[in-house]
Amino acid sequence: MEIKDPRNHFSKENGALSGEKTSKTIRKLKDMKGFYEDEEAFNKMDPETVLYEVEMHAPVKAGTEGGLFFGTSFLNPGKVGEEFFMTKGHFHEIINRAEYYWGLEGEGVLVFMDEDGNASAEKVCPGSLHFVPGKIAHRLVNTGDTKLAVGACWPADAGHQYGPIAESGFGVRIKEKNGTIIAE
Ligand SMILES: [Fe+2]
To answer: Matching InterPro entries, A to Z (predicted)?
Structure first.
């Protein structure tokens, strides 16, 4: 029997993916209208500004029960007004599906929110590991001066629900005020 080479690789430094069945999604400022508090600051910025990119390995079709997806999110450093660049954040479409996140590069915050709107947050750093239980919305925020890279693994049938977040947010925003990182 032949022992084959691996079909995929990820960078040990930042989690960048290579090999088969990988894809990349790019989120720009213009994709996140209404997500940031300071609309005046938002409107002054270049709508083509890249906020984050998600690389993903999808060995099965989306929606496959029992399947897994693997990905790495890369958030650029920056702010809209006082608020740090962040991902849209989501509940899973099948809401009880859980997920793992792990910090690879840079400094950030992972924000959680339950279905009643109660928020909490954890620091993300290289080597940090985060379990996101089912029924909990999750969002990454880059609070550093460099790129934030975070790995993730989630069920292939989890799906994403952005609607509730777009409408009412996370109930908490991660900002810099007087040189301090705060959640308010
Ligand atoms: Fe998720």
So the answer is: G6P_isomerase_prok (IPR010551), RmlC-like_jellyroll (IPR014710), RmlC_Cupin_sf (IPR011051)
Q: Could you write out the DSSP letters of every residue in 71-109?
A: EEEEEPP-EETTEEPB---BB-SSTT--EEEEEEES-EE
Residue 117 Cα to ligand 1 middle (Å): 17
CA–centroid distance, 153 to ligand 1, in Å, is: 8
Secondary structure class of 35 (helix, strand, coil): coil
**3-state SS, residue 150:** strand
Ligand 1 centroid to Cα of residue 93, in Å, is: 9
Q: Where are the domains of the chain?
A: 8-183
Torsion (CA) 173, 178, 181, 183 in degrees, nearest 10: -30
Question: Residues 166, 170, 175, 177: is their CA dihedral positive or negative?
Answer: positive
Torsion (CA) 166, 109, 17, 162 in degrees, nearest 10: -10
The CA 144 to ligand 1 mean position distance, Å, reads 22
pLDDT (tens digit, 0 to 9) for every residue of the chain, 184 residues total? 999 999 999 999 999 999 999 999 999 999 999 999 999 999 999 999 999 999 999 999 999 999 999 999 999 999 999 999 999 999 999 999 999 999 999 999 999 999 999 999 999 999 999 999 999 999 999 999 999 999 999 999 999 999 888 888 999 999 999 999 999 9
Hey, what are 173's tokens?
Answer: 């925003």
